[in-house]
Amino acid sequence: MFKYIIKKIIGMIPMLIIITFLIYLLLEMTPGDAVSRMMDPEAIARLSEQELTAIRELYGLNDPFIIRYFKWLFQIMQGNFGTSITSGVPVSTIIGRALPATIELAIAALFISTFLGSVLGVLGAIRKGTMTDNLLTFAGMIGVSIPQFFFGMVCILIFSLNLEWLPVGGRTDPSVVNFFDRIQYLVLPSLVLGITMTAGVMRYARSSMLDTMNKEYIRTARSKGIPEWRVNLVHGFRVSLTPVIVLVGFRLPTLIAGSVVIESIFQWPGIGNTFSSAIRASNYNLVMMIALIFVFMVLFASTFVDIITALLDPRVKLEK
Amino acid sequence: MKKRLLAVLLASMLFLTGCGAGGEKAPEVTDATETNVLYTNGGPIEFFETPWLNPGTFFYNKVLFDRLIVADENLMTIEGEGQLAETYEVSEDGMSIKFNLREGITWHDGEAITPEDIKWSIEYAQLVPALNPVINSTFSAISEMTIDGNSLTVNFSKLAPDALLAFTQFSPLPQKYFVDVEPAGFQQADFWQSPVGSGPFKVKEVQMNNYTTLEAFPEYWGGAADYTIQLSPSAGDSDENFVANAQAGKMDYGYTRSIDDIKALEGVEGMNIEQVDVRYTRLFFLNKFPNADGDSPLADVKVRQALLYALDMQAILDGVFDGAANPANSLTPNAADKPTDLNNYEYDVEKAKALLAEANWNPDTVLDVVYYYTDQLTVDLMTIIQSYWSQVGVTMEFRLVEGDLASILWSAPTDPVNGPSAVEWDICYAANAALSLHEYYDRYQTGQAINSHTPSDPTLDALIEATNNTLDPTEITEAFHALQRYENENLFVLPLYYQPVFVVTSDKITKGAPAVGNPQWNYNWDIQNWELGK
What we know:
Chain A is an all-alpha fold.
């Protein structure tokens, strides 16, 4: 088991280097640089060549691309994440401000989508071919098709502006005392994010449950005279959860990396917002560090799911 | 069983890691529920922008910092009246200004504001690369500064016609926070995470990219407000959440250029919208330098006039902006003084065709139009103009330019008289948002660093120079009128339209709201005296 984990972790290192190099390359290929985005073009045009070179030097932009990449890489290996080009604030501070907000949102959405998706999926499987199943399948199709930004805006219109039950956006305000006061801000974005993800989980859970219910041991359980609810829940549901867990495990990092739209609509001060504004500003240090986190999380989730799957699935023997 | 236990443990670790990281310490209890709150936008996302580049764009810069002197809503200085300077005196020849600072004024951290701070701020600003152009041109004319007691005298080496205007916008800063800060890295100083100012409000709490609260500065010389200000984050005058926040009662003051925002807010109870004509002109810069293929297709004034006659700007603006923009007849907007007899180049296809024929326009010529805006409105506008011009036999193609815009748009030719052009476009669609009228015209002078498009014209140089050579208001007006007439006839640029700003306020502001001026500049707000209802 230990060797398996070590092997997986070591395998992540070259992947991380290759992916970060590609991201750095893509960033380099975008038109302009941090200075041309930070300063008004007319102000830049008024500067002498020497003044412009001095400014670019200050931000480390005069070196060739490959040198800058390896400088960044060695810096990271020494635990120095650098500073934001636009604000001079350490990248670790900026990420430390934004990441918790995104993780909070992602976990809440993940919980909602997993719970609703599993329950509704299993219900659809148990009631296969009935009106309930058809209705859930239809709802699932709508859930997959509806764009997050549209659903989010409709929810704001209904629950914030018309009914005035919930705030239009933000994560907190000065009158907030504790986490429970803050929940009102979390409800809408997490529900919108969670519900738009529910359809996928539901369809996955349904097919997994259907697959499980056709297994030999389910027929055996039924032939033993075990009550149907027990067959469904204990023997069917539990086993059918394995692929759902795999899906959920993969979803957390992708949720964190893909929260840009929801964060933008709900003014959520998370990493998605930070990432998009960093890209717009060609803020290399910040973009690279956030990208590194995203890549690491996806790779970590992949490894983690491998391990969990191995542990849950009796057919996988790690020692062999 | 062991496997299950391990699985549960790993899953729990993941969850707790997430919760742990997400469990940010709740902010301390504040008295925001007890004090009345003015909601607005423009709050910091990653840092507070310095007040030296876009002095009034951000609400916080208006209220965190005082300037030396103050302007009215038309950006005219109020004679003798000041903010940090209780009084000021301009020498008869206009070559020096003496600022007499108020006694006993302090920064928000309690330290005294001294003439040394002001002197240092001006000297430091002279080294900062990203500075407002009017402030920059004024400061570059300063020859020396002397301190006498609580007064600072600024002497100029040449006439600085916008000096007073510049000092209505320039916010001095406390020197001690910038001791080790390189001027090139001015914006990156720690100071901009929670600035210490001199204005009627000071920073109370910053939750970056979430909200920022400002509270009244009790020692402010003009009195202390009895409310706090809460800022939602947004980038300058572009706020995606403007409408939602306004409709939810979280926008008591804000401004926007977006017609869609205003349409969405019309009829919202308790919200007031006021259109303000500001110094903001959308135009076509015309490249008249010879290019690689020979003479510029726009070198002939008749072609330039024809291009303008061929556009029905009123119809275009009615369609694109729903009428909320005005056709332009000069760089100088309607909000400023200009002659009343300027040619408006009313839509006249036949006249346009005749002028093109007189100019021997080559119908195979394709005008290369560039723009840097990424909104759909710009594409719509370009498509419409393309259609209008095609009716008189002029072909244009348009494209978005990105990246190093300084080089792409504003590289001036080595020879400012004969060229050739250092840029690869015929027409550039852009905007001029000017603090001073000089800012509109000075760039067309021979040899200006950003004059990428207008070859040396001695008449134009002389007319521009005349606007800069006097402080007499009558002479200045006359000089500008002469320049505007020349511009109107020669069309060294094609002015297209003036775009207003819409100031949105809520009924919550019950008393003291200022006369509405351009919200992107500083003028006498007296915000400490505003009164808010519940």
